[in-house]
Amino acid sequence: MPGAGMRVSSEAAGRWLVLAAAVLWGTTGTAQAFAPAGAEPETVGAVRIALGGAALLAFAFFSGSLRTGGHRWTRPATAVAAGAIAAYQICFFNGVALTGVAAGTIVAIGSAPVFGGLLGFLFRGERPGARWAAATVLAVLGCGLLVGAGGGITVDAAGVLLALGAGLSYAAYATASKRLLDVIPSVTVVAVTFSLGGVLLSPFLLAGDLSWVVEPRGTAVALHLGLVATAVAYLLFGRGLGYIPVATAATLSLAEPLTAGFLGVLVLGERLTGPALLGSGLLLAGLVLLTVRRKSAPGG
């Protein structure tokens, strides 16, 4: 049946594209570690989105996708996607500031697949299935062990709520973008929503200290975060999201902490403890379960 084979092939490509995007997202922590002193988290996030949005907008314009008329923009979905981009930066960076990097990251990243599955079901009627559920359980457990292996986890109620807000923001962006991707090319969707998100975050650029950006090391960090970890990563994510359910994309995004952990060892000289190694194995197993599928497997 050629139609079914093409659909399975497209879904497989979508999974690999989202996985590649998550790997690029996983480089952000290492890149920020090289930022000069004085680079505040909110400012770093605002610079990242501003550069990434500008690069995406330029790419969309020169590729001709912005000049093609007739795009059927849905205003609520566009507003939600742009707002979710800005909200994620604010919720995540403030959440980890209040409750710590370990607990904040666990809650934000671990809750995203759950929110993604819920929103995908409520607004798109998606039913992820048992394979997604098993992969998500493995990946979330692995993520918790990997990120929390350093110990010293503290819990702050406000910080946890903000981290949950970050996970919900990510899922909301994926769900709203999926709605737009049904009728608009992925390049255009990502470019416009990120540009609008950058506008919403512009007050942080106006009020923050940007002196670190003009330093050579700061410029390199900003360019990597904006061009590689945002522009390229979200082009891959937008394209892949067009082929797979929201819940699947959210679970595959858990490759981000796995990549960050490996880069911490290889680049920053960090050490993986026993729990971290176990967590890495569980997380990798969940991603493999969701990504590598038998040809006869049904979609979803």
UniProtKB/TrEMBL annotation:
<feature type="transmembrane region" description="Helical">
    <location>
        <begin position="157"/>
        <end position="176"/>
    </location>
</feature>
<dbReference type="InterPro" id="IPR000620">
    <property type="entry name" value="EamA_dom"/>
</dbReference>
<feature type="transmembrane region" description="Helical">
    <location>
        <begin position="183"/>
        <end position="206"/>
    </location>
</feature>
<feature type="transmembrane region" description="Helical">
    <location>
        <begin position="130"/>
        <end position="151"/>
    </location>
</feature>
<dbReference type="InterPro" id="IPR050638">
    <property type="entry name" value="AA-Vitamin_Transporters"/>
</dbReference>
<keyword id="KW-1133">Transmembrane helix</keyword>
<dbReference type="GO" id="GO:0016020">
    <property type="term" value="C:membrane"/>
</dbReference>
<feature type="transmembrane region" description="Helical">
    <location>
        <begin position="101"/>
        <end position="123"/>
    </location>
</feature>
<comment type="similarity">
    <text>Belongs to the EamA transporter family.</text>
</comment>
<keyword id="KW-0472">Membrane</keyword>
<feature type="transmembrane region" description="Helical">
    <location>
        <begin position="43"/>
        <end position="64"/>
    </location>
</feature>
<feature type="transmembrane region" description="Helical">
    <location>
        <begin position="244"/>
        <end position="268"/>
    </location>
</feature>
<keyword id="KW-0812">Transmembrane</keyword>
<dbReference type="Pfam" id="PF00892">
    <property type="entry name" value="EamA"/>
</dbReference>
<feature type="domain" description="EamA">
    <location>
        <begin position="14"/>
        <end position="147"/>
    </location>
</feature>
<feature type="transmembrane region" description="Helical">
    <location>
        <begin position="274"/>
        <end position="292"/>
    </location>
</feature>
<dbReference type="InterPro" id="IPR037185">
    <property type="entry name" value="EmrE-like"/>
</dbReference>
<feature type="transmembrane region" description="Helical">
    <location>
        <begin position="218"/>
        <end position="237"/>
    </location>
</feature>
<feature type="transmembrane region" description="Helical">
    <location>
        <begin position="76"/>
        <end position="95"/>
    </location>
</feature>
<protein>
    <submittedName>
        <fullName>EamA family transporter</fullName>
    </submittedName>
</protein>
<feature type="domain" description="EamA">
    <location>
        <begin position="158"/>
        <end position="291"/>
    </location>
</feature>
